[in-house]
Write a structure and sequence with these properties.
It is a single chain. With 243 residues, the chain is mainly alpha-helical. It contains 8 helices and 4 strands, in the order βαβαβαααααβα. The longest helix has 25 residues. The radius of gyration is 18 Å and the shape is globular. It starts with a strand and ends with a helix.
Length: 243
C-alpha cells in the first residue's frame, strides 16, 4: 500500500492517441479473450521473475528482517512515495478529472525507456549483484504494469483511450505506450500486491530497498519522468460521449 495521495483509479480497458507506427484496423471482439490470456501470462511471469530476482541473487543490501521469518503474512507492505512524486499525481488528477484532459499517448518517453535508463545508471552497475537485482526489478515493474494497467491504474475517464490504444497498436506493450505519470500510479498499487507475494521476508526487504532507491532516483530529478502539463490534451467530443 502506498502512503500519499490516492489515485482513485481502478480500471477496465480503453485509450486513444498517436505516436508509434500506423494504427491497425479495428479487431474483432474475440481479441478480448486473447488479451485476458496474455495478461494472465504476464502476471505469472512477473511473479516468477520477482522470486528469481530477489531470492537467486541481487542481495547486496543489508537484511533488516528476522532470519526466522519466511513469509509476508501478518503485516502490510508499505511503498512510500516521496512528496514531490505525490504532487505529480495530484496534478494528474486535476488535469484528468477536473480538466477533462488525457495524456497524449503514446508518450514521448515511455515507461520502458525510463526503466531501461535506470537499469544502466552508473550507481546500479557497481557490482554484479546490484546490476542483477536492478535488472530484475525493472523487468518486474514492466510486467506488473502491463498486467494491471487496465484494471487498476486508470481513471474511468481514461479507459476509452486505453481501448483504442489496444486495437491501434496490437504489437506494442502498454509500458511502451504509457509514460511517467502512469508509472507512479503503479507504485500506488505495489504495496497490496507485495503483501500477497510468495517472497520470504528477507527477499521482500531486499526488493523494497531497491524500490526505495528507484523512487529516490526519480525524486532527485523529476525531469527523469518527463511529466509535463503541456503533454495533456483536451479529450475529443467523441471521447466525452462514451465516458
Amino acid at each position: 500500500m502506498v502512503q500519499g495521495a490516492s489515485s482513485g483509479r481502478s480500471g477496465s480497458s480503453q485509450p486513444v492517441s498517436q505516436g508509434v507506427g500506423e494504427p491497425a484496423p479495428l479487431k474483432h471482439d474475440s481479441d478480448a479473450a486473447i488479451q485476458m490470456s496474455a495478461r494472465k501470462e504476464q502476471r505469472q511471469a512477473a511473479s516468477c521473475n520477482l522470486r528469481c530476482a530477489f531470492t537467486c541473487g541481487g542481495n547486496d543490501k543489508d537484511n533488516h528482517s528476522d532470519p526466522g521469518e519466511d513469509s509476508t503474512g501478518g503485516f502490510e507492505v508499505q511503498v512510500n512515495l516521496p512528496k514531490c512524486l505525490r504532487s505529480l499525481l495530484v496534478q494528474d488528477w486535476e488535469l484528468v478529472i477536473r480538466g477533462k484532459k488525457l495524456c497524449d499517448l503514446p508518450a514521448k518517453v515511455s515507461i520502458d525507456a525510463i526503466l531501461s535508463e535506470y537499469a544502466i545508471f552508473p550507481m546500479n552497475c557497481h557490482t554484479r549483484d546490484k546490476k542483477y537485482a536492478v535488472c530484475g526489478l525493472v523487468d518486474v515493474l514492466k510486467e506488473y504494469f502491463n498486467a494491471i494497467l487496465s484494471t487498476q491504474l486508470l481513471y474511468d475517464f481514461e479507459r476509452p483511450q486505453y481501448d483504442e490504444l489496444v486495437v491501434s497498436y496490437p504489437s506494442s506493450q502498454m509500458c511502451e505506450l504509457y509514460g511517467g505519470v502512469h508509472l507512479l500510479c503503479l507504485f500506488q498499487q505495489l504495496g497490496p500486491m507485495l503483501t500477497c507475494t510468495s517472497l520470504d521476508d528477507s527477499s521482500l526487504m531486499v526488493l523494497l530497498s531497491h524500490l526505495e532507491d528507484f523512487l529516490e532516483y526519480l525524486a532527485r530529478d523529476l525531469y527523469l519522468l518527463f511529466i509535463d502539463a503541456k503533454d495533456y490534451v483536451l479529450a475529443s467530443e467523441e471521447h466525452l460521449k462514451v465516458v
